């Protein structure tokens, strides 16, 4: 009998070789976390992320059920699939957490962000700022002789693109709400 031969480039898979089944690719996920609205809950959720070195790209929270005293935290985070799974499991184990939904894997969802952008400029830059704002469907919510404040809603990429076009026109100041997201359909 000849010895078993493994071809060059082929890998042997062992039940103990977990790395062969894991992806190291970084993914971005949007998590919706329904929690009891009480003091300290948000700090505990944030503590879970910071204590383990996980990054939060966006965070929004608001009460969604006044009678039931529940709030919804929307978190955009990134990591390997294993890190995302670990985050979800750790969130689910927290006592004030009622539900954790990974909108990124559960189907189609809608996400939007609101930003207020102050652009300070004079002369022709002001005309150009208004032209760009019209293209992006941004609203002027404040105006002085030296600045505009625009309100824009959309995806984070849309807001980033708008800001990049405004920066050459003058000093830009920015306030963003963070992502709000919800699943589509039923």
TrEMBL record:
<dbReference type="InterPro" id="IPR054480">
    <property type="entry name" value="AHAS_small-like_ACT"/>
</dbReference>
<feature type="domain" description="ACT">
    <location>
        <begin position="30"/>
        <end position="105"/>
    </location>
</feature>
<dbReference type="Pfam" id="PF10369">
    <property type="entry name" value="ALS_ss_C"/>
</dbReference>
<comment type="function">
    <text>Catalyzes the conversion of 2 pyruvate molecules into acetolactate in the first common step of the biosynthetic pathway of the branched-amino acids such as leucine, isoleucine, and valine.</text>
</comment>
<dbReference type="InterPro" id="IPR002912">
    <property type="entry name" value="ACT_dom"/>
</dbReference>
<dbReference type="InterPro" id="IPR004789">
    <property type="entry name" value="Acetalactate_synth_ssu"/>
</dbReference>
<dbReference type="GO" id="GO:0003984">
    <property type="term" value="F:acetolactate synthase activity"/>
</dbReference>
<dbReference type="InterPro" id="IPR045865">
    <property type="entry name" value="ACT-like_dom_sf"/>
</dbReference>
<dbReference type="InterPro" id="IPR019455">
    <property type="entry name" value="Acetolactate_synth_ssu_C"/>
</dbReference>
<comment type="pathway">
    <text>Amino-acid biosynthesis; L-isoleucine biosynthesis; L-isoleucine from 2-oxobutanoate: step 1/4.</text>
</comment>
<comment type="similarity">
    <text>Belongs to the acetolactate synthase small subunit family.</text>
</comment>
<dbReference type="InterPro" id="IPR039557">
    <property type="entry name" value="AHAS_ACT"/>
</dbReference>
<dbReference type="InterPro" id="IPR027271">
    <property type="entry name" value="Acetolactate_synth/TF_NikR_C"/>
</dbReference>
<keyword id="KW-0028">Amino-acid biosynthesis</keyword>
<dbReference type="GO" id="GO:1990610">
    <property type="term" value="F:acetolactate synthase regulator activity"/>
</dbReference>
<keyword id="KW-0100">Branched-chain amino acid biosynthesis</keyword>
<dbReference type="GO" id="GO:0009097">
    <property type="term" value="P:isoleucine biosynthetic process"/>
</dbReference>
<dbReference type="GO" id="GO:0009099">
    <property type="term" value="P:L-valine biosynthetic process"/>
</dbReference>
<comment type="subunit">
    <text>Dimer of large and small chains.</text>
</comment>
<dbReference type="Pfam" id="PF22629">
    <property type="entry name" value="ACT_AHAS_ss"/>
</dbReference>
<comment type="pathway">
    <text>Amino-acid biosynthesis; L-valine biosynthesis; L-valine from pyruvate: step 1/4.</text>
</comment>
<dbReference type="GO" id="GO:0005829">
    <property type="term" value="C:cytosol"/>
</dbReference>
<protein>
    <recommendedName>
        <fullName>Acetolactate synthase small subunit</fullName>
        <ecNumber>2.2.1.6</ecNumber>
    </recommendedName>
</protein>
<keyword id="KW-0808">Transferase</keyword>
């Amino acid at each position: 009998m000849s010895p078993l031969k493994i071809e060059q480039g082929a890998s042997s898979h062992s039940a103990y070789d977990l790395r062969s089944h894991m992806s190291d690719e970084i993914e971005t996920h949007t998590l919706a976390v329904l929690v009891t609205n009480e003091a300290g809950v948000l700090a505990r959720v944030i503590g879970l992320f910071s204590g383990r070195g996980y990054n939060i790209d966006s965070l929004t929270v608001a009460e969604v059920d006044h009678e039931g005293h529940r709030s919804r935290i929307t978190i955009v985070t990134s990591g390997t699939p294993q890190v995302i799974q670990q985050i979800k499991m750790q969130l689910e184990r927290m006592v004030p957490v009622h539900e954790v939904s990974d909108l990124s894997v559960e189907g189609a969802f809608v996400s939007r962000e609101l930003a207020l952008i102050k652009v300070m400029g004079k002369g022709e830059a002001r005309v150009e700022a208004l032209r760009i704002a019209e293209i992006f469907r941004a609203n002027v919510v404040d105006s002085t002789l030296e600045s505009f404040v625009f309100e824009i809603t959309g995806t984070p990429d849309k807001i980033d693109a708008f800001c990049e076009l405004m920066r050459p026109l003058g000093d830009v100041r920015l306030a963003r709400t963070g992502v709000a997201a919800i699943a589509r359909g039923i």
